[in-house]
Amino acid sequence: MLYAGFMSSTLPPFPTPQEPVENTPVLLELGTDVDEPCLRADAARNRARLLDAAARLVAEHGAAGVTMEAVAAAAQVGKGTVFRRFGDRTGLLTALLDHSERKFQASILSGPAPLGPGAPPVERLRAFGCAALRRAADDLELQLAAEPCPDRRFLVPPRQVRYGHVLMLLRQAVPDADCELLAQTLMGYLEPALIHHLTRQCHMPMDRLQAGWFDLVERVTGSGGSR
Amino acid sequence: MLYAGFMSSTLPPFPTPQEPVENTPVLLELGTDVDEPCLRADAARNRARLLDAAARLVAEHGAAGVTMEAVAAAAQVGKGTVFRRFGDRTGLLTALLDHSERKFQASILSGPAPLGPGAPPVERLRAFGCAALRRAADDLELQLAAEPCPDRRFLVPPRQVRYGHVLMLLRQAVPDADCELLAQTLMGYLEPALIHHLTRQCHMPMDRLQAGWFDLVERVTGSGGSR
DNA sequence: TAACGATCCGGACCGAGGTCCGTTTAATTT
DNA sequence: AAATTAAACGGACCTCGGTCCGGATCGTTA
Lengths: 227, 227
Prior knowledge:
The structure is a homodimer of 227-residue chains. Chain A has helices at 41-61, 68-74, 79-86, 89-110, 121-137, 140-145, 157-173, 179-189, 192-201, 206-221. With 227 residues, the first copy, chain A, is mainly alpha-helical. The first copy, chain A, starts with 40 loop residues before the first helix and ends in a 6-residue tail after the last helix.
């Protein structure tokens, strides 16, 4: 089993001063929506409240309105509690995205082909890009706001899952290439910041991005039968 | 003349409340090191002092030590002055990188082949990547710290210059492709954050990144004569 | 050189992210 | 049910990026 060990899951930091607290990632367990495994009753209640309040704030004032203090106030909870639960702002925003990210992951891991297993790798790659583009297009704002600082951007669980997936497919499609690097390149095309730039600032239609993805996959995997 | 109009140049914000103050980019003028065109005597003096102080702070405490207040203090200048001159922290850090960025741009625009004009486009593309990788490797820390927020990352002059260059070369190499998108893809491979991840976190040697670039260019331009 | 207006300076001020630590509370044990 | 302990809570506090505006300075014009 390839990437067991870093299913998305809102990275639960519980940053009690001691112990580095790495990401305690939830193993797959596709159906069950195991969130925070063991959490004291009050903690769980507050966590739910906070996520709810945060979502409300996003809906009302956009991602920029999600201030840690505002969220705390809206959830009638102390500010420290927010940080204890989610580590930092990025963590909170990531948690907000967690549900849809999980669905995305699930459909990749075990959904119907060609996104899920069963189709040939290049075809799955194509499908993956389309799905990723779509997912990026929805709540782009949140994805941008949730972007961590540069030196953590590549260590975040959702990214690792996607990377692992692309890597696996690439290894099947072009076994002789340096697939790690090619995978990073492909991932770069799906970066929220780039999508935002191309669609919102350059006004490209999504169709074009999608066509671009197909073309890129074809070039990278050398699967261009005709040309 | 292709990309006249956005030579790097530390984006001079002079954010006097009114007027949007867009980037007033310096036209090429390769030899002359025209910095801030017209700047009052005291302003120019303070600007120099600030850059000097900032460089000193970087040398001593790393990029993280470059606090706007610390820089102001070290330059014996008010905090407001720093912001007036450089707009924000990103602007200051960018200004620090400006000198080497300009040299880089110059050698691309008019240096010796294959980096400069004269070589066939694919070869220039290869050379460009090598140079960009080298440049990213030096003062990686600064480049990371200077990274703007996601929705400005692609609008920053140095990035636009590089993009324009790659775009031009790609258009020569693969006239029928969607070169805008391919150019963005290639640029993604050279992103400082990615270089940092691959070299510092994955411990890949630079040689491998370089080989990866060659391979990528070959795949993207379809210039693989043999395989 | 005196006066004037545009530009610049400086530091008080604000908001937001993040930390700390004394206090409270939920679970467990006796 | 009382005691115990680990965990969670809350909000004061700190730092830092960014803004504002009254006052000082520079360059120019008369």
